[in-house]
Amino acid sequence: MTDQEHLARVARWLRQARCAVAFTGAGISTESGIPDFRSPGGIWSKSQPVMFEDFLASPQARHEYWRQKSQAHGDFAAAAPNHGHRVLAQWQRQGWLHGVITQNIDGLHQVAGSRRVLELHGTARKIACLGCGARFDPQPLVTRFIETDVVPECPKCGGLLKHATVSFGQGLPPAVLEEAIELSRRCDLFFAMGSSLVVEPAAGLPRLARESGGRLVIVNRQPTGQDPEADVVLHAPIGATLVEIDRLAAGEELGA
Ligand code: ZN
Known about the structure:
The chain is of the alpha/beta class. The chain has helices at 3-16, 26-30, 43-46, 52-57, 59-78, 83-93, 108-112, 138-148, 174-186, 204-211, 238-255; strands at residues 20-24, 99-102, 117-119, 122-129, 135-136, 161-165, 189-193, 215-219, 232-234. Residues 129, 131-132, 134, 154, 156-157, 159 line the site of zinc ion.
């Protein structure tokens, strides 16, 4: 089967699906210029990530955390959604897609207009107080840290402030994970894109969808841990691939 025939099949499945879900990893956002933090040249090849328990225990670790996050903040603040994010948001508006599960913390799905976005690793677009739970826009706090080199405290309770992302050594948000599992189990079409699908829960969700009778479509530049299990595998850029599936799916509607 040629790539074009694979794309046509996927477009048909999308139009026939009762419940389609997209799972996205770093690969969708590298097309927006956000570096994959695990890749060579990514942030963790240059500095050690701060473990959550160290963040809680040590003022030096909190300072290092804020230093790294303030550096990375510019990447997120400047990035814009690309074709991949926009096509997924459009499919949601059209009722073709029922949710997005993402490992990304950049918030670009929401900027593109997606509504039901399950952020397994939280969001870098908010700062949260570990004491009282209050949430703040990151920009003023990051700016003040850069100017003063002093780690900020919660203006409401004096508690520790941290980006609303899941740090190394910190558990995934249970309610979000539970909803992602439920959605994966219920869907009959599961798109996995921009993730190597090796570490949990990225590995488990597509498998769960398959075991519950759903079709699995993988779009990724590199081979993934689940390629042998997938119904269709497309080793291609995500944005261009989704634009083409969208074009074919719109044609399906006219033909039906
Ligand atoms: Zn607080």
